[in-house]
Amino acid sequence: MIYFEILNLLLIAVILYVVTVFILGPVKRSPDQSIHPWFGKYTKNIPNLMSYLRFPLGIWIFVVHGLPQLQNVYSAFTFHLSFALICFFDSLDGKFARKWNAVTEDGKSLDPAADKWVTFCLALTAFIYGNGELRWFALVIVFGREFISMLQRMRLKRRGEDVSARWLGKIKTGVQFTVLYIILLRADLLPDCILLEKIAKLLPANMILWGVILLCFCTVISIFPYFRTFSYVNDYKKSQREESERPWYIVMLPNLFTIGNYLSGVTAVYFAMPEVEVQHRPFVLLFWVLAAALCDALDGPVARKLNAHSEFGACLDSSIDLSTFGLATAIVIFLRFSAIKGEFSYLSLPLALFYFTYVHMRLARFTVRSQKHEDKSVKQDFLGMPSPTGAGAALVCFTFFENIPLLSFSIIIISLLMYGKLDFISHSNCVKKPFYRYFMIPVLFSGFIMLLVLIFQQPFVSAHFSRELIFYFHICSWLFTIPLFLYVLDAVRRTYLK
User: Fold this and answer.
1) SS3 for the chain, per residue?
2) Would 116 be classed as within a structural domain?
3) What pLDDT tens digit does each residue of the chain (498 aa) get?
């Protein structure tokens, strides 16, 4: 049986290879050649044809899961082949159009419409037949995003504005398709036929939940560029607009830190979910937000050191901060308030929105100031508390208090500090100051390493020592709280006592 499944997988790979070679065609004789040697006068119609084909393929994915008469090995094979063709057509239509000068206005509208249709079909199929692994909130986010983006595209197109999401839309589509396909692989309606089903079923349910949260975050951040108030997520710094000529593996190094920032934020939300069982939850959440902040502090210096700027990295950097230190932290605040209260907290919702709004306003102001700053080689200090520091400070509060009024007051103060007028020193400039270099940074680093060790040794310690962990966890909290308090005091000194 396993040989049959491997053979089917190889057959799909061969079909995709043949389709790719046939559609893209031979090497062009000249750069101006726009007529495909096999398609002739129909060359300009081929990209649109590939977009049109995705509509029936999306319907077939839903139908083959919904009709018991079709739930056999042959139909299962066509399901996998249909999904593979959808992904390849989504990639090939753009490559073909650029190669053979077949870009049309109809194609620009048809391609996103086909993506939305396939997303609808996959999401609905996974929600109905995916054993409940696609949560209702994920379905609402996916459908809501596509509906809102469709309205915004129509509105902004009438005004002649560019609504391109650049890399954000591509990342969103890739993550959505991957997570939804894995959920469908784990469903028991279709027989196994390409070996991937067995691999998908080995994944733990909690990993699927993490993937669903990742899908939700990618879906939400991809809609930011459609609104003028969030336009800064696509306003790249001047120094980042020049693509690096370094090898791709060098260019990707700083992007790995940016992606680590994003995945750490997603992981923080995952551990904040009430159905995820974890000991010492507030400290685990704090660790992952601090890990995101560490990645955020390293991606820029690494990119500058290696001269490895890219449009992909700039797009990620300009949106991940809002996602991790704004959206993810706001969701964690909401979930922690509800957990402390033991039920849905009506106070936590406006408080989380208040926090997110101030992070958004702070990042928008930061982008405007960066664009006005002429010398890009000199790192500016911060006007207002940096959003990574604010996110860490908010979660530190949960390690000390469980009093809702006190927590609410603390988060409001932190939010106001982020959009305040205090002059906070940047992490690039603080290493030049002896106080930061020899005290603040070592204390913070020691606290992070101690927190890392305590969290990842929990499954391996005895029950007696496990009861003592809370004492050491609180030491970690103090190792972050003291530098944070001194950081704010130093900002007050820099602002008013210069």
Assistant:
1) CHHHHHHHHHHHHHHHHHHHHHHHCCCCCCCCCCCECCCECCHHHHHHHHHHHHHHHHHHHHHHHHCHHHCCHHHHHHHHHHHHHHHHHHHHHHHHHHHCCCCCHHHHHHHHHHHHHHHHHHHHHHHHHCCCCCCHHHHHHHHHHHHHHHHHHHHHHHCCCCCCCCHHHHHHHHHHHHHHHHHHHHCCCCCCCCCHHHHHHHCCHHHHHHHHHHHHHHHHHCCHHHCHHHHHHHCCCHHHCCCCCCCHHHHHHHHHHHHHHHHHHHHHHHHHCCCCCCCCHHHHHHHHHHHHHHHHHHHHHHHHHHCCCCHHHHHHHHHHHHHHHHHHHHHHHHHHHHHHHCCCCCCHHHHHHHHHHHHHHHHHHHHHHHHHCCCCCCCCCEECCCHHHHHHHHHHHHHHCCCHHHHHHHHHHHHHHHCCCCEECCHHHHCCCHHHHHHHHHHHHHHHHHHHHHHHCHHHCCHHHHHHHHHHHHHHHHHHHHHHHHHHHHHHHHHHCC
2) yes
3) 688 888 999 999 999 999 888 888 888 777 777 888 888 888 888 889 999 999 999 999 999 999 989 889 999 999 999 999 999 998 888 888 888 888 877 777 788 889 889 999 999 999 999 999 999 999 999 999 988 888 887 887 777 766 555 677 888 999 999 999 999 999 988 998 888 999 999 999 999 999 999 999 999 988 888 887 887 776 554 444 455 566 766 777 888 888 999 999 999 999 999 999 888 899 999 999 999 999 988 887 887 777 776 666 666 777 888 999 999 999 999 999 989 987 777 788 999 999 999 999 998 888 777 766 555 455 678 889 999 999 999 999 999 988 899 999 999 999 999 998 899 998 878 888 899 989 999 999 999 999 998 888 776 665 556 677 888 899 999 999 999 999 999 999 999 886
User: Which residue range(s) make up the domain with 267?
Assistant: 232-425
- Specify if 340 maps to a domain: yes
Same domain, 198 and 302: no
Q: In this structure, are 171 and 251 located in the same domain?
A: no
- Do 122 and 56 lie in one domain? The reply is yes
In a domain, 459, yes or no: no
Split into its structural domains, the chain has a count of 2
Domain final residue pick, 405, 425, 445: 425
Same domain, 155 and 293: no
- Do 130 and 92 lie in one domain? The reply is yes
What CATH number is attached to the domain comprising 349? 1.20.120
